[in-house]
Design a protein that fits this description.
Blueprint (H helix, E strand, L loop, with lengths): L1 H21 L10 H4 L7 H12 L6 H24 L3 E3 L9 H9 L11 E2 L12 E2 L18 H18 L7 H6 L2 H6 L16 E11 L4 H11 L2 E5 L7 E6 L10 E9 L9 E5 L11 E5 L11 E11 L1
Parallel strand pairs: 2-4, 6-9
Antiparallel strand pairs: 1-6, 3-7, 4-10, 5-7, 5-10, 7-8, 8-9
Helix pairs in contact: 1-4
Organism: Medicago truncatula
Enzyme class: hydrolase
Keywords: Disulfide bond, Glycoprotein, Hydrolase, Protease, Signal, Thiol protease
């Protein structure tokens, strides 16, 4: 009986999904019923004008403008499909709404081919008894403000630097913004040999007697919900890879899509978790992206935990910080 109910629910979801696709070619976009379901007011043209104003979008020609408008409309339909497949989250207009999925992958994500450093070890198994129901490193002062990587596929750098900043905070009690630009410019082994990463304000103008932090004991965490939580509490924010398929249209809420592959393409920083404030709200991870505070929930993404949704548990790593001083 339970399997039958699950099958009926899946057929219902697929029916709605394909209904959205059939409605994709609605002739009058201003009255498009699908678009009306994912925006607060007005049609696609009104929403596009607000989008351009909010994010300062300027296009080089009328042809480019018209092309981006069509991409924008396509993404509104895509957002509706995401609402159907991910009903516990809100999907709609984001700063990426004028990018095609291919452009988003190539220009924004950029985790392809990036893995853990060669010297990474398996993290030791930690006790997972008495873990708190909710935890957030932002409340402890271990997380720097959300940055914006721009149109550069460097999310892996922001992810690992965020983990190093947290580890440095646990080691020194000082929250320092380290240079992700230097991490992009140099490879990991060179940075380690040269004494670590500079502060953000010091990179570009090389000064003497600069305090640096260097990553040490880079460890890979077991694909296990409790072990990830235990490592998060002990070592600080964790570097994580994720499939960002639903993130281009994400506005808020807890993302828990019915289907999402574990093909990892985006680096994020795991900073905490929640138990679900309401009965219908699922337990979730809190991850920090590198797309500025205007995206998601002030730059953060909530994704449900316990099922390795979108591969969020598949590549998690800790970083320990060691202080050095270069003259």
């Amino acid at each position: 009986m339970m399997n039958r109910n699950k099958t009926l629910m899946l057929f219902s979801v697929l029916f709605l999904f394909f209904s959205v696709d059939l409605a994709f070619s609605t002739p009058n976009d201003r009255e498009d019923p699908i678009i009306q379901q994912v925006v607060d007011k007005g049609g696609a043209e009104h929403q596009f004008n607000e989008f351009k104003q909010r994010f300062g979008k300027v296009y080089s020609s009328k042809d480019e403008h018209d092309y981006r408008f069509n991409v924008f409309k396509s993404n509104l339909h895509r957002a509706k499909r995401h609402v159907i497949m991910d009903p516990s989250a809100t999907h709609g207009v984001t700063r990426f709404s004028d990018l095609t999925p291919r452009e988003f992958r190539n220009s924004i994500l950029g985790l392809k081919g990036v893995g853990l450093p060669r010297h990474a070890k398996a993290a030791p198994i930690l006790s997972s008894e008495n873990l708190p129901r909710d935890f957030d490193w932002r409340e402890k002062g271990a997380v720097t403000p959300v940055r914006n990587q721009g149109f550069c596929g460097s999310s892996w750098s922001f992810s690992t630097i965020g983990a190093l900043e947290g580890a440095n905070f646990l080691s020194t009690g000082e929250l320092v913004s380290l240079s992700d630009q230097q991490h992009v410019d140099c490879d990991h082994e060179y940075i380690k040999k040269s004494g670590g990463l500079m502060r953000v304000e010091d990179y570009t103008y090389y000064k003497t007697n600069i305090a640096r932090s260097v990553a040490a004991n880079f460890s890979s965490v077991l694909v296990d919900d409790d072990q990830i939580a235990a490592n998060l509490l002990k070592y600080g924010p964790l570097a994580v890879a994720i499939n960002a398929a639903y993130m281009q249209t994400y506005v808020g809420g807890v993302s828990c899509p019915y289907t999402c592959t574990r093909r990892l393409d985006h680096g994020v920083l795991l900073v905490g978790y929640g138990s679900g404030a309401y009965t219908k709200e699922k337990p979730y991870w809190i991850v920090k992206s590198s797309w500025g505070e205007t995206w998601g929930e002030n730059g953060y993404y909530k994704i449900c935990r316990g099922r390795n949704i979108c591969g969020v548990d598949s590549m998690v790593s800790t970083v320990a910080a060691a202080q050095t001083t270069t003259h």
